[in-house]
C-alpha cells in the first residue's frame, strides 16, 4: 500500500504530498488542475521513461518519493536479489530527473537502476489509464492470473521444475558430446603424451637428485682433494687437530693433579675429540666414494635433458608433468565411456521429456478451462460498465514445443465494438474503455490478484448515470481487497471514497502551481456539489449529501 506520495517540481506541481490510505482513494479537481500529473509522477516512481521537459520551470530537477507499506514474499525476494535489506520498513522509493535528462533512482537510500525500480514497481502498483497500463498486459502476468484463478499455480511450478530438469539433461548431453568429439580430434596427440610421459618412468624428486649427482661427478677430482685435506688437517702425521687435542689432554691431566676443580674440562675435551674424529672418518669415507666416472656423468646429463624437455612441454615440475599424463589418460578413457554415458543420458532425458509433456498437457487442459471461465465472467460485467457489446477472451495459443511456462501462450483479447474481430487487449480500447475492462478483470480476480495498489485514470470517460453508479460499486468492491486510487470527474464515484483528495491550480509568484488537499465534512460536500454542476446550488448540495449518505 502507498502511504505517501511526494512530488516536487513536476510541471505545475511545486511541492505536493499525497497522504493515501487503504480502500478507495479518489482524486478530483477541475480539468487541467494537475490530477493526471500526479499519476505521471507515480509512473515515474515506478520506473517509467522520463522526459526532462517535465521539470518545472526554473527548477533544476524533479523529485518523486513514495513511502510504501508492503511485505509480500515476492517483494522481499526482489529486494534481496538487489542486495537490499528486505526487512527494512516502510519501503521508500525515490526518483530524480534533471533538466539535462539524467535520471536516478533509489530504494531505501540505495541507488538502483531504472529496470530494478520498474521491477519493484510491478509488484506494488497496477496503473491503468490513457498513457499507462502495467502488469496485466504482460504475457507472463496473464499466465500467472489464469493460474491463480484456475488454481493451477502448483501445476505450473511442476512444469517449470520439470523443464529445468530436462534442460539440465540436454545441457549434459551437449557438453559430454562436445567433449567426446574434442577428445576424438585430439586422440593421436593424447596417446603420444601418455606414451611419452609413462615411458619416461618419472619419479618425484628425481630432478633434484640428478642435479646433485651431476655436480658431484663433474667436480669429483676437486671434491676428493678437499675431503683429503680435511682428513689430513684433522688426523695427519704432523700438526693435526687430533694430535693437538692429545697434547691438550696430557696438559689437562697434569693441571688436574694440582687443581681438581678443572676435572669438568675433560668432558669438553672428550666431546671435541669425538666430533673431530667422526668428521675425519666421514670426510675419508666421502673421499673414498668419489671417483671420476665420465660414463655415469653422461647418463645423468642425458636423463636431465629428458626431464628438461618433458617439463618444457608438459609442466614446470615433475608433479605437473605427471598430472598432464594422468589427465591425458583420463581424456582417452572418456572416448571409451562417452558413448555409453550418452546413451544413458538420452534415456533419462527422454523419460524426463515424457513426464514434462504429460504435466504440460494437464496444465493446458486446466488453463484452457480457467481462461474460458475468466473470459465469461469478465464479459458478463462489461454491460454494467457501459460496454454492452464488449467481449473479453483469454486466447490459448498452442506452442510447437513445451517451454518453462507450459505448452501454450495466453493472450488477452477484446472485442468492444460490433463487427470487429477480437484484437490484443492493449490495442483494442481507448484509455477509458481500457480502464473499465481492467476494472472488470480486477473485480473478477478479487483475491487472486497479488498487486496491492490499483490506479485508474479515465475510468469514467464517456459514462454517467447508471453506468457511473455501476463503476462506483465495482471500484468500492475491489477496494475491499486492494488499495485503489481513482482520478474521476463523476460525483457518484467520488462519493464512495474512503479518502477524498482534491487538486486545485492557482498562480503563485507568477507561476501556475497545483496543490492537493484531503477533504472532510463540508469541504467534501462543496466539492461534490461542484462536480454536480454548482457548489452554490441548494439542489446540488442536497444531491451531494444524498450521495454521501450511508448505503
What's the structural blueprint in terms of helices and strands?
Elements: E1 2-10, E2 13-19, E3 24-29, H1 35-45, E4 61-68, H2 73-81, E5 91-98, E6 103-107, E7 110-112, H3 114-124, E8 125-128, H4 139-149, H5 153-185, H6 187-200, H7 206-218, H8 220-235, H9 241-258, H10 265-289, H11 294-314, H12 318-381, E9 391-403, E10 406-415, E11 423-424, H13 431-445, E12 453-457, H14 465-478, E13 483-487, H15 491-494, E14 499-508, E15 511-519, H16 521-532, H17 538-548
Parallel strand pairs: 3-13, 3-14, 8-12, 12-13
Antiparallel strand pairs: 1-2, 1-4, 4-5, 5-6, 6-7, 9-10, 10-11, 14-15
Helix pairs in contact: 2-3, 5-12, 6-12, 7-11, 8-10, 9-10, 11-12, 12-13, 13-14, 16-17
In short:
The protein is α/β, with parallel strands linked by helices and 551 residues long. The chain has helices at 35-45, 73-81, 114-124, 139-149, 153-185, 187-200, 206-218, 220-235, 241-258, 265-289, 294-314, 318-381, 431-445, 465-478, 491-494, 521-532, 538-548; strands at 2-10, 13-19, 24-29, 61-68, 91-98, 103-107, 110-112, 125-128, 391-403, 406-415, 423-424, 453-457, 483-487, 499-508, 511-519. It is elongated, with a radius of gyration of 45 Å.
Explain what this protein looks like in three dimensions.
By secondary structure, the chain is an alpha/beta fold. The chain has a domain at 152-367. It is 55% helix and 19% strand. It contains 17 helices and 15 strands. The chain has helices at 35-45, 73-81, 114-124, 139-149, 153-185, 187-200, 206-218, 220-235, 241-258, 265-289, 294-314, 318-381, 431-445, 465-478, 491-494, 521-532, 538-548; strands at 2-10, 13-19, 24-29, 61-68, 91-98, 103-107, 110-112, 125-128, 391-403, 406-415, 423-424, 453-457, 483-487, 499-508, 511-519. The chain is elongated and about 145 Å long. The mean pLDDT is 85.
Amino acid at each position: 500500500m502507498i502511504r505517501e506520495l511526494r512530488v516536487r517540481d513536476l510541471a505545475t506541481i511545486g511541492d505536493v504530498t499525497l497522504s493515501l490510505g487503504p480502500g478507495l482513494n479518489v482524486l478530483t479537481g477541475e480539468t487541467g488542475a494537475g490530477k493526471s500529473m500526479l499519476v505521471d509522477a507515480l509512473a515515474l516512481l515506478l520506473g517509467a521513461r522520463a522526459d526532462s521537459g517535465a521539470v518545472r520551470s526554473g527548477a533544476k530537477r524533479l523529485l518523486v518519493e513514495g513511502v510504501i507499506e508492503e511485505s509480500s514474499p515476492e517483494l522481499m525476494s526482489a529486494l534481496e536479489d538487489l542486495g537490499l535489506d528486505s526487512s527494512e520498513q516502510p519501503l521508500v522509493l525515490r526518483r530524480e530527473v534533471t533538466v539535462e535528462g539524467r535520471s536516478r533512482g533509489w530504494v531505501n537510500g540505495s541507488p538502483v537502476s531504472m529496470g530494478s525500480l520498474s521491477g519493484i514497481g510491478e509488484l506494488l502498483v497496477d496503473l491503468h489509464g490513457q498513457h499507462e497500463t502495467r502488469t496485466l498486459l504482460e504475457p507472463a502476468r496473464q499466465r500467472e492470473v489464469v493460474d491463480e484463478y484456475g488454481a493451477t499455480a502448483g501445476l505450473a511450478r511442476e512444469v517449470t521444475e520439470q523443464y529445468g530438469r530436462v534442460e539440465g539433461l540436454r545441457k549434459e548431453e551437449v557438453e559430454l558430446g562436445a567433449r567426446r568429439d574434442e577428445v576424438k580430434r585430439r586422440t593421436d596427440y593424447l596417446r603420444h603424451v601418455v606414451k611419452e610421459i609413462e615411458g619416461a618412468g618419472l619419479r618425484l624428486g628425481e630432478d633434484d637428485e640428478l642435479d646433485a649427482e651431476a655436480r658431484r661427478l663433474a667436480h669429483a677430482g676437486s671434491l676428493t682433494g678437499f675431503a683429503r685435506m680435511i682428513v689430513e688437517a684433522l688426523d695427519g702425521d704432523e700438526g693435526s687437530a687430533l694430535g693437538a687435542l692429545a697434547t691438550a689432554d696430557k696438559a689437562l691431566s697434569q693441571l688436574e693433579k694440582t687443581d681438581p676443580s678443572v676435572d669438568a674440562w675433560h668432558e669438553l675435551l672428550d666431546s671435541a675429540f669425538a666430533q673431530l674424529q667422526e668428521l675425519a672418518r666421514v670426510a675419508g669415507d666421502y673421499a673414498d666414494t668419489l671417483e671420476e666416472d665420465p660414463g655415469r656423468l653422461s647418463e645423468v646429463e642425458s636423463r636431465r635433458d629428458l626431464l628438461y624437455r618433458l617439463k618444457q612441454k608438459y609442466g614446470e615440475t615433475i608433479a605437473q608433468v605427471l598430472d598432464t599424463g594422468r589427465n591425458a589418460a583420463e581424456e582417452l578413457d572418456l572416448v571409451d565411456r562417452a558413448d555409453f554415458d550418452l546413451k544413458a543420458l538420452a534415456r533419462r532425458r527422454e523419460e524426463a521429456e515424457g513426464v514434462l509433456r504429460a504435466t504440460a498437457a494437464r496444465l493446458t487442459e486446466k488453463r484452457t478451462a480457467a481462461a474460458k471461465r475468466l473470459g465469461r465472467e469478465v464479459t458478463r460485467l462489461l454491460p454494467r460498465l457501459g460496454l454492452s457489446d464488449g467481449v473479453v477472451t483469454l486466447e490459448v495459443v498452442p506452442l510447437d514445443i513445451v517451454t518453462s511456462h507450459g505448452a501454450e501462450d495466453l493472450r488477452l483479447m477484446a472485442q468492444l465494438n460490433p463487427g470487429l474481430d477480437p484484437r490484443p487487449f492493449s490495442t483494442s480500447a481507448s484509455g477509458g474503455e481500457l480502464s473499465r475492462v481492467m476494472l472488470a478483470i480486477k473485480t473478477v480476480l478479487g483475491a487472486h490478484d497479488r498487486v496491492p495498489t490499483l490506479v485508474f485514470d479515465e475510468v469514467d470517460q464517456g459514462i454517467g448515470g447508471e453506468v457511473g453508479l455501476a463503476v462506483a460499486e465495482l471500484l468500492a468492491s475491489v477496494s475491499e481487497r486492494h488499495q485503489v486510487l481513482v482520478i474521476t470527474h463523476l460525483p457518484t464515484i467520488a462519493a464512495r471514497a474512503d479518502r477524498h483528495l482534491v487538486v486545485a491550480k492557482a498562480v503563485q509568484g507568477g507561476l501556475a502551481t497545483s496543490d492537493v488537499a484531503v477533504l472532510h465534512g463540508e469541504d467534501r460536500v462543496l466539492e461534490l456539489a461542484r462536480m454536480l454542476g454548482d457548489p452554490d446550488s441548494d439542489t446540488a448540495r442536497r444531491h451531494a449529501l444524498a450521495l454521501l449518505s450511508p448505503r
